[in-house]
Specification:
Elements (H helix, E strand, L loop, with lengths): L1 E2 L5 H10 L5 H10 L14 H10 E2 L4 E7 L6 E6 L5 E9 L2 E5 L3 E3 L14 E4 L2 H15 L5 E4 L9 H12 L11 E5 L3 H10 L4 E5 L5 H7 L2 H4 L2 H15 L3 E7 L7 H11 L4 E7 L13 H13 L4 E3 L18 H4 L1
Parallel strand pairs: 1-2, 6-9, 9-10, 10-11, 11-12, 12-13, 13-14
Antiparallel strand pairs: 3-4, 4-5, 5-6, 7-8
The protein binds S-adenosyl-L-homocysteine.
S-adenosyl-L-homocysteine binds next to strand 10 and strand 12.
Length: about 350
């Protein structure tokens, strides 16, 4: 059985034509699916015979929330979803002045092994399909009754380690016949898989790119992120410069600040040298505490000082506002503890 939420409109047209139906039916089905319908009987402008045929080969796979945690302070909601095969994933709904946003997971688990991140602790279970990535958004819209206009692919998983499904996900949510979410309202965050960064710049020049940097020397970055062994700074940074030059788009560098590891004045100085003249912006994230990681966060005050040092040397930076802290929904905290399943 085919999950129709896994298909781009083009793929759905191919499927429907192969079933002996006219191509325009695909647009109708696609439209219904992204209006939230999961039952073919509700697709009232389709002939009964066609609906029957569809039911025999395809279905519309949704993800069911097992648990929803609501922040008491800022409207953030954290979702725990169960997938068809029993795997569990998490997403976070956030309210901003410019509208609602969702942080989605791209994999069940992660194999990148960053030492300060909770999501990678148990390794990778499997890639999520395009439909599983976008169903997180649809389930949150159904739960909140609100429209979600922005997507950040910053939940569990390394999106560039699941690139084919990520690309189809972007094409599906961007389609004007469906959710119609603008490319510029989507942000993808990567730990730095250089060949995919280059490909992404060609495939999706309008989608925002965020790079998890976190360290200014190979020694420091390598101690936090194993991926640095394969793609050290001397190949990552030129790929980023090329990206900004070919796309004309600004890169966001995420810099998770860890006390005594990457938060010194020299770090700030090296960071501004590394990024000098690049079309970019640095997002400073004071480490969110993850039990048993052994790492310590920095004060808000230190993050502000660091920001100031960067700005003095011409690098634009902000300190990330923390949302959903009271429900462990902040960056790097998406991980299934026992308490989630109880
Ligand atoms: N794999 C992708 C996207 C997921 S992580 C990536 O690496 O970019 C999203 C961001 O949260 C990354 O910048 C990641 O390094 C950061 N992060 C992970 N654990 C964190 C923690 N405990 N505190 C603060 N930020 C964290």
């Amino acid at each position: 059985m085919i999950n129709l939420r896994d298909l781009t409109l083009k793929e759905m047209e191919e499927l429907i034509v192969s079933m002996g139906e006219p191509k325009f039916r695909a647009k109708q089905v696609f439209g219904w699916i992204y209006k939230g319908k999961t039952d073919f009987r509700e697709m009232t402008n389709l002939p009964e015979v066609f609906r029957q045929k569809l039911k025999e080969t395809a279905y519309i796979g949704a993800v069911e929330p097992l648990k929803i945690q609501k922040s008491k302070t800022d409207g953030t909601r954290k979702y725990l979803f169960r997938l068809e095969d029993g795997n569990l994933i998490e997403s976070v709904f956030m309210k901003y002045k410019y509208g609602n946003s969702i942080c989605v997971s791209s994999q069940a688990g992660c194999r990148m092994g960053c030492c300060f991140c909770a999501s990678t602790r148990n390794g990778l279970d499997r890639n999520l399909t395009p439909g599983e990535i976008l169903s997180q958004l649809m389930a949150a819209e159904a739960d909140t009754g609100e429209r979600i206009g922005h997507i950040v692919v910053m939940g569990t998983g390394e999106p560039f380690d699941n690139y084919d499904n990520l690309s189809r996900f972007i094409r599906i949510v961007n389609d004007p016949n469906g959710l119609n979410i603008g490319m510029r309202n989507i942000t993808v965050s990567t730990c730095g898989l250089v060949p995919v960064i280059r490909r992404f710049g060609r495939d999706f020049p309008q989608v925002n790119l965020a790079i998890s940097l976190h360290g200014t020397t190979d020694e420091i970055r390598g101690s936090m992120m194993p991926v640095n062994g394969k793609y050290p700074l001397e190949v990552l940074i030129p790929a980023c410069r090329d990206y900004t030059e070919t796309t004309g788009r600004r890169i966001t560098f995420e810099y998770t600040m860890v006390n005594g590891v990457n938060d010194s004045d020299e770090d700030a100085h090296r960071l501004s040298k590394l990024l000098q003249g690049m079309l970019c912006h640095v997002n400073l994230i004071p480490l969110n505490r993850v039990a048993e990681s052994g790492f310590d966060t920095v004060s808000r005050k230190r993050a502000e000082e660091f920001r100031h040092l960067l700005e003095r040397e011409g690098v634009v930076a902000t300190v990330r506002r923390e949302l959903g802290a009271d429900i462990d929904a902040a960056c790097g905290q998406l991980r299934l503890g026992k308490k989630d399943i109880e």
